[in-house]
Amino acid sequence: MMNLIFDKTGKGREEMATRKHGLSLKMRSLLVLIDGKNSGEDLVKKFSYLGLNDQNLAKLLEEGFVQSVQPAPAATPAAQAAKPVAEQHKQPAAEEILAEGETQFHAIYNFYTHTITSTLGLRGYGLQLKVERASSIEDFRALRTKYLEAVFKAKGDEMTRSLRNRLDQLLYLGEPVPPNTNPVDASS
To answer: Would residue 175 be called left, alpha or beta, if left means φ above 0 and alpha means ψ between -120 and 50 degrees?
Structure first.
């Protein structure tokens, strides 16, 4: 199942538009990410920081929110090695990161909201208030260091690196990421 590419069904699109079926926030987050381009394995790997796993994907499939559209192409190590180095390390395009119809601002807002809740709990309340007051991408960029320091303190280095990489993709969509802007970056 994990080597299949999934897309939303009519029921899945209805849930996105109306929330009629009452999916949990976690399951709805996964549904948002399903775009008909990524395999189950890619989705779970990319978004495991949200606590998503193959069982969540199987439940969406079982309940009719998603369907498999085709097998994922097998990527061979030789094919990956044949790509130019710059292409292997380039930032993904906006359409690869943002859900259909989602703006960069909303994607960052959703990222902060979901991950503050799941990693910091009540300790993230003050940070969440700052997210709520943010009115621009620059405001979100200004929160980056405080957010990463709080995650580092609560969850350690590995979780912080994972969340930092995803956050930087959203904050600096198509732009170079500034180097070493906080203590966590210095250790990577």
So the answer is: beta
